[in-house]
Specification:
It is a single chain. This protein is α/β, with parallel strands linked by helices. It has 4 helices and 7 strands. The strands form 2 sheets. It has a 4-stranded antiparallel β-sheet. β6 and β7 form a beta hairpin. It is globular.
Amino acid sequence: MGRRKVPNLFFLLHFGTEDAEKADMLARLRRYPSPRVRLAPIILVAQDCDADTFLRYVQMGFDDILCLPDSAELLVDRLIGQLNHDIVYIETADYLGPDRRRMELPGAGHANRVSNAHLHTRLIIHRSLSNGPAVLQRQDHWDTIVY
């Protein structure tokens, strides 16, 4: 008897939710005991938004932000883009999610993203259709990070 395939989870959050509720939902999902939930893509479905709003959502820790009205093909491509490639996650005492520096200019840090614990972990995760999410690599760093 073969191994049962576990479907990937995707969490879609509506932009109309208050920012405090968005942050709370992100935190609760990222603390969930099961890696299937904890490492699942959390995607915000938003209205067409300006660059500052988009970056604010990235800084909150969403895996992706889908801005409507995009074509159905583009939306499907973005969702599929969460699968079958390696993704860098950062884990600190109070954050687990995609490396938020991916959308910043070099040297541009966010004042609220300095780890007080001076410990962060860089995770390489991979989400596949056959196995769900998996941590491929874990690197602990004992210095200050701006994540």
